[in-house]
Amino acid sequence: IGEIFVDMIGGRQQEKNYTCYAGGVPFNLAVAAHKLRTGVYFMDGGNDKMGSFLLEEGKKQGSDPSYIQWD
User: Fold this and answer.
1) Above 70 in pLDDT, residue 15?
2) Helix, strand or coil, per DSSP, at residue 60
3) Which among 22, 46, 48, 71 is least buried, having the fewest CB atoms inside 10 angstroms?
4) Higher pLDDT, residue 69 or 10
5) In terms of Cα–Cα distance, which of 38, 19, 30 is closest to 61?
6) Do 5 and 23 touch, CB atoms closer than 8 A?
């Protein structure tokens, strides 16, 4: 149980030039648990640009998005 964060690194605020990374302890632990073949699911997602980014990052790590409920 926890949340996933989007870490935005670099760039100037005026230029909005950032590189985004999925992060946060819960996300990192979920990815590690998934690699150990345990049942890990994300249940809730924000229906916005960052939510879509996190969905794609989760898919890259093998996450099953079928349980996600969008806010």
Assistant:
1) no
2) helix
3) 71
4) 10
5) 30
6) yes
Alpha carbons 2 and 16: distance in angstroms, whole number: 27
SS3 49: helix
pLDDT, one tens digit per residue, over 19-59 is: 888 888 888 888 888 888 887 777 667 788 888 888 888 88
Cα separation, 4 vs 29, whole angstroms:
11
Distance CA 24, CA 32 (A): 13
**H-type alpha helices, the chain:** 25-35, 49-60
Distance of CA 20 to the CA centre of its chain: 10
Q: Does pLDDT of 13 surpass 70?
A: no
